[in-house]
Amino acid sequence: MAVPARKHSHARKMKRRSNVWKLQAPALSICPECGEYKAPHRVCPNCGKYNGRQVIAVDED
């Protein structure tokens, strides 16, 4: 059987659903080579290393 659409107010419905749209902080790990934060399983943008190997050349400024 159908439920009336206006049984609960819009504010009450959105209050109930408020946890659905919470943003999550991005997962970050620390690079073992340089100590900077980087995304896990990605090349470090600071030093260019991944899994102990030099993957990309990074200009030293």
TrEMBL record:
Keyword tags: Ribonucleoprotein, Ribosomal protein
GO biological process: translation
Native source species: Ruminococcus difficilis
NCBIfam families noted in UniProt: rpmF_bact
Protein name: Large ribosomal subunit protein bL32
Highest rank taxon of the organism: Bacteria
Keyword Magnesium tagged: no
InterPro entries for the chain: Ribosomal_bL32, Ribosomal_bL32_bact, Ribosomal_zn-bd
Family note: Belongs to the bacterial ribosomal protein bL32 family.
One function term, GO molecular function aspect: structural constituent of ribosome
GO cellular component: large ribosomal subunit
